[in-house]
Amino acid sequence: MKKRTPVSSIMTKDVITLNHTDDLETAERLFKKNKIRHIPVVSGHEIIGMLSYTDLLRISFADAIDEEEENVDTVVYNMFTIEQVMAKNLISVNSHTTIKEVAEILAKKEFHALPVIENNTLVGIVTTTDLINYLIEQF
Fold first, then answer.
1. Signal sequence: where (predicted)?
2. What digits encode the pLDDT tens for the residues 13-58?
3. Spatial contact of 7 and 99, defined as CB atoms under 8 Å apart
4. Which terminus of the chain faces fewer neighbouring Cβ atoms within 10 Å, N or C?
C-alpha cells in the first residue's frame, strides 16, 4: 500500500450536486436514481453544504421502506428546505490530500463523505465506500 497516494486517485470526479434552491423531493430522486448516499449542495460554483440520504430519513420515514420506489411522498419534504436539512459546517480536502489523511478524518468524525475542493471549486467527493473499495483492491 502506497503511503502518499492522493485522494484524487479514488474520489468520484463526476459529482452529482444539488442547488440550494432545489427541493427535497428532487434530492430523494437523485439519491435513488443514482444509488448514492451523499450530494454536495452548491450555490453557483460554491459548495455550501452536504446532504446525505440519512438526513432525509431523519425527517421522513415514509420512503425508508422501499428504496426502489420511484414515487415520493412529499408532504414532509414540503415543510423543509435543503438548507435546513443539509450539513453546513463542512470539512473539505484538496485533490493532493493523501488517502491516509482522508481516512483519519473520516475515522474521527461522524460523517461519511468529504468534498474535494481546488481553488474554491468542487472537483470531487470521497466517501467511506471509496476508501473501503481502495483497501479491497490492495489485497
1. none
2. 999 999 999 999 999 999 999 999 999 999 988 899 999 999 998 8
3. yes
4. C
Place of cell 484524487: 8
3-state DSSP assignment of residue 61 = coil
Query: Is residue 123 packed enough to be buried (19+ CB in 10 Å), middle (13-18) or exposed (0-12)?
Result: middle
Tell me the Cα Rg of the chain. 16
